[in-house]
Each structure stands twice: as C-alpha cells, then as structure tokens.
Amino acid sequence: MTTATAIANPNLAFIKYWGNRDNTLRIPMNGSISMNLDGLYTRTTVRFQLGLTSDQLSINGYEVTGKGLDRISYILDIIRGMANLHDRAEVISENNFPSGAGIASSASAFAALALAGSKAAGLDLSEPALSHLARRGSGSASRSIPGGFVEWQAGTSDEDSFAFSIAEPGHWDLVDCIAIVSTAHKKTGSTEGHSLAPTSPLQAARVEDTVRRLDICRKAILERDFEAFASIVELDSDMMHSVMMTSTPALHYWKPASLEVMSCVRQWRAEGIQVCYTVDAGPNVHVLCPETEIRNVEKRLREVKGVSNVLVARAGGPAKVIEK
Ligand code: PMV
C-alpha cells in the first residue's frame, strides 16, 4: 500500500488540555475528556511516491508550504522511521468546517494524517499507537482517534500518553450547537498558547485540581447526569480561560458576542433548560444540550446578537480508513 485515505472528526473537550509537560512530545500537564463531533470532518489522502524530492501538502485545494508543511513532514518522518520508508509523500486534506476558530481543525487533521499516513506506509497500528502518533502533531488529535466520548490520560512519556473511549457515541444523546461569532483565523494558535500556560500564576492550581474535575465529568457522562455535567464543564472552560487571560502575554479569545452567548446560556439554564457552554482557543461558543432541547436551543442561539450561524454536531465515531 502506498496510498490511503482516512477521515476523522474534530473533538470538543469538556475537561480541557492546556499546557504541556513536554512541548516537543506534546505530553500534557493534565488529562482531558472530549466528545468527537459527528458530521464535521477532515478527509486526508497520503500518497508516498518514488521520485518526489519533498513532501507536498494541499489543504482545501490550496498548496501549503513553510511551517504548516513542516508540521506534516514531522509526522511523516516518524511514520517513515517506523516503516523504514524513504519516499516523500503528497498529502491532500480537506475540512468540511471553518478552521482556525476554536473548532479544533488540527485535531481532526492530525488524526486523519496519522491514520492515512501509517496505512499508506503499510503499517497496521493499534488504536493507542495511532493516538500517540496523532498526539505528536497536535495534542488534542490523540482524542480524535477513538470514537464517542474519549479520555486522554496525560501519562508521563510518549508510550503512556494516549486516548481511549469511555463510552460509545450512542451512549448519550448530547448535541453540540456551535454558535459561530467569528470565522477569522485566531492570532495565537494553541501550540504557542500551551507554552504560555506556565506563565499564569493560576495554571498550577488548575492542573492540581484536574483529577477531581476529570472524575466528576467522567461520572456525569457515564450516568448521563446533565446537571453535574453542566457545572463541571462550565467551570473547566472558565478555569482554562482564566489561565489564558492571566498569561504573559495575556490571551483573550472571547469576543463580546462570546460573552453574550455564555450569559444567555446561564439564563436559559436558570429557566430550566438543560444547556451549558464551553469555549476552546477561539471566540466561538460550544453550547451543549440533550437532543430533546435542540430545537429550542438552536432557535434561541440564532436570535442572540452577534451569532452569525449555528453548526450542530452529535457524538461521532472513531477515525476511519475509507476507500476513496
Ligand atoms: O491540540 P491543540 O494543541 O490544538 O490544543 C487544544 C487546546 C484546546 O482546544 C483549547 C483544549 C482541548 O483540550 O481541546
């Protein structure tokens, strides 16, 4: 096999990853829990070709060079080392959702690359091995390899830092309504953001409290307890943004419309609607609710000032190799 195509969903973290113990290997300071986002995906084809002098990358039809390509070649080099292969590769990648605005396109991208690249190189890697490999490209990509609700155990080395499913996609009918307030590319990407995390005096306390938050979140998911889930998810998001805002230099990802959505969500929950929010390294707000609330929540979100669109995603499956 010299060519393979794979698709992977992005994922949304309920307990966030922010800050690395090892920036090169992307070993995180803390464990995290997420849900894969069905319907949103990166589709990537990797073709190793004799005679190519360098790796080539196209994303959504545009050729990418420089740092973007280097990041891909770094993963391809690991794959070439494992497979004892020397050919360079052509990588063609497409996202069906806006990238660079807190919808974790790097997670689906590196998960799809790890799977398509290793298959194209003739390797048949286990799920944990694929999860490590994807992690080397983007930490959160480790969580887009397994399906459904996923936990990434922080670990302390390359071998024990990988993700696994804690529940199948059908386990809980949670829906992510992504309130889009901007599709502009963020100024500070997460790789740089992770390296700033230790400059915040709040990061140590956030990390130290993570096992407690992971336990509450895991239990809430397994028991489908929305109330417990809502309070821990909002707390975790607010804690990560507190660290971001108190880093040097400070990172402010929220826009006025992000705050407007968060405040509406809290109000709706006080009125008895099962709904909560979480925000990644961008301004868009992920609004979570059970399937029974979706029509109401989506309609209300579309009426909030500053919300230009709402994308809806349910729990998705694992990264998959596809025929074409
Ligand atoms: O995988 P990265 O380096 O893009 O980091 C992701 C960071 C957050 O999305 C903010 C949190 C998370 O756990 O996904």
Topology (SSEs and partners):
Layout: E1 3-8, E2 11-15, E3 20-22, E4 27-28, E5 32-36, E6 42-49, E7 56-59, E8 62-64, H1 66-83, E9 88-95, H2 105-120, H3 127-137, E10 149-152, E11 163-167, E12 174-180, H4 190-196, H5 203-208, H6 210-222, H7 226-245, H8 256-270, E13 276-279, E14 285-290, H9 294-303, E15 309-314, E16 320-322
Parallel strand pairs: 7-9
Antiparallel strand pairs: 1-6, 1-16, 2-5, 3-4, 5-10, 6-9, 7-8, 10-11, 12-14, 12-15, 13-14
Bound molecules: (3R)-3-hydroxy-3-methyl-5-(phosphonooxy)pentanoic acid
Average pLDDT number: 95
Radius of gyration: 19 Å
Note poorly predicted spans. none
Number of helices: 9
CATH topology of the largest domain: Ribosomal Protein S5, domain 2
Report strand order across the widest sheet: 8-7-9-6-1-16
Key terms for this structure?
324 residues; alpha+beta; Ribosomal Protein S5, domain 2; Alpha-Beta Plaits; 2 domains; 6-stranded mixed sheet; 4-stranded antiparallel sheet; 9 helices; 16 strands; 36% helix; binds (3R)-3-hydroxy-3-methyl-5-(phosphonooxy)pentanoic acid
Question: Can you characterise this structure?
Answer:
With 324 residues, the protein is of the alpha+beta class. The chain has two domains: 2-170, 2-Layer Sandwich (Ribosomal Protein S5, domain 2); 171-314, Alpha-Beta Plaits. The protein has helices at 66-83, 105-120, 127-137, 190-196, 203-208, 210-222, 226-245, 256-270, 294-303; strands spanning 3-8, 11-15, 20-22, 27-28, 32-36, 42-49, 56-59, 62-64, 88-95, 149-152, 163-167, 174-180, 276-279, 285-290, 309-314, 320-322. It has a six-stranded mixed β-sheet. The chain has a four-stranded antiparallel β-sheet with strand order 2-5-10-11. A four-stranded antiparallel β-sheet has the order 13-14-12-15. Strand 3 and strand 4 (27-28) form a beta hairpin. It is globular. (3R)-3-hydroxy-3-methyl-5-(phosphonooxy)pentanoic acid binds at residues 13, 16-18, 32, 104, 106-107, 138-140, 190-191, 194, 280-281.
